[in-house]
Specification:
The protein has helices at 3-7, 15-29, 43-55, 74-86, 95-107, 110-121, 236-251, 255-270, 277-305, 314-336, 356-361, 372-382; strands spanning 127-130, 146-150, 153-161, 171-177, 188-194, 200-205, 214-225, 229-230, 345-348, 351-354. The chain has 388 residues and is of the alpha+beta class. It is globular, with a radius of gyration of 22 Å.
């Protein structure tokens, strides 16, 4: 890591000054061939970019400086993410950066921090999230993967599914059932598992768009030291809820919808759809939906900027953003006519645009991180005081 980056007082800059610095960094360093990819790249493709960010001290904006982060305030983390996204940078292996790293800093032991955090920064450890299971996806508390203590180790048996990029991960943080005799949320623990051991099998799942991003993971007498328990035994549910709340904020970003809307406009102007008053009416409606979604996101962003926290209402943000994105991509397929049925990129007025993949990809947005039905139940029960 460059010493001047580590020593720099980023929070001494105004947000706009920091935005200029961040925009310049990403414009200068994001590899051109990796910008605005229409798929999630493999680890081998983005490892060099990951290490470039790490070596410049730009990999983990929210981590404290003592652990190799930039130590940014919440408002500047938001600026960082906005400029990262604006640059078209590819998504890297980010479960270690966004989830398990911050969790260990806040809730881990000092031994866990010393052992795991440097290896996240160096790219030696790549992480996946072991939450969902068959018949326990949105109803996460129904998970059945079990762990029992033998000596100084947990022995783990079960199956995880819909595990993003598990084929490129060598570590997993997972929820496991450690007590079947109590209320289901009270018998869950949070474990760190090395996947490079006998008894761990990863199988890719081809999604509807034809990509292998998701996996199923089988744990057959896999082992992990008792020292890899994060938090207290049987109290993993509290940690899981904290991570999911953070995930819902970012899944509520309007960026995907805004990008899709720009491509929709370009497509519609290229094929004359903007002369069709029926289409223009639909286009106007989704444009208003995107603007409403962006306005709601900005409200939550402002809470972050001022150091505030969220309640159950953050579920509204995820519903709004993900369902809006679906409507925009549905209209794009409609506007494309016959081209909307083609996989891969097509030429639209000199620009290569993949029309079908965003439509297929955003079907999953309303499911992962807690489905729209689960989010509506959360709002009904905890915000509107209605029967869930």
């Amino acid at each position: 890591m460059e010493a001047n980056t580590q020593q720099r007082d980023w929070n001494g800059l105004s947000d706009e000054e920091f935005r200029e610095v961040a925009a310049d960094f990403f414009a200068s360093h994001v590899p051109q061939h990796l910008r605005h990819l229409s798929r999630r790249p493999r680890w081998a493709e983005v490892k060099e970019w990951y290490l470039t960010m790490s070596n410049h001290g730009w990999l983990v904006p929210s981590w404290p400086k003592e652990w190799g982060g930039m130590g940014l305030s919440q408002s500047k983390v938001l600026v960082y993410l906005e400029e990262l996204e604006r640059s078209g940078a590819p998504r890297v292996m980010d479960q270690g950066l966004m989830n398990i790293g911050p969790l260990l800093i806040a809730r881990g032991t000092d031994e866990q921090r010393q052992r795991f955090l440097p290896k996240i920064l160096s790219g030696e450890h790549t992480w996946c999230q072991g939450y969902s299971e068959p018949n326990a996806g949105s109803d996460l508390a129904s998970l059945r993967t079990e762990a029992r203590i033998e000596g100084n180790e947990f022995v783990i048996n079960g199956q995880k599914i819909w595990t993003s990029v598990a084929f490129d991960a060598n570590h997993m943080f997972a929820l496991v059932r450690t007590d079947k005799t109590v209320k289901k949320q009270a018998g869950i623990s949070f474990l760190l598992i090395d996947m490079r051991q006998p008894g761990v099998t990863v199988r890719p799942i081809r999604n509807i768009a034809g990509h292998d991003e998701l996996c199923e993971v089988f744990l057959d007498n896999a082992r992990t030291p008792v020292a890899n328990l994060v938090g207290e035994l049987n109290r993993g549910w509290d940690i899981a809820k904290a991570l999911l709340g953070f995930e819902r904020i970012w899944s509520g970003s309007p960026r995907q919808s805004m990008l899709a809307l720009l491509r929709l406009e370009k497509l519609a102007r290229a094929n004359g759809k903007m002369d069709d008053p029926v289409f223009v009416d639909k286009y106007t409606q989704v444009t208003m939906d995107v603007l409403d979604s962006a306005s709601a996101y900005e409200r939550f962003a402002q809470i972050m900027r001022t150091g505030g926290s969220f309640g159950f209402e953050v579920s509204m943000l995820k519903i709004w953003a993900t369902e809006t994105c679906q409507r925009v991509t549905e209209l794009m397929v409609e506007a494309a006519g016959d081209l909307g049925a083609l996989g891969g990129e097509v030429d639209v007025d000199g620009e290569a645009i993949d029309i079908l993949y965003p439509f297929l990809d955003c079907r999953a947005f309303t499911i992962y991180g807690g489905s729209s039905q689960v989010q509506r139940n959360i709002l009904a029960k905890n915000v509107l005081d209605l029967p869930a």
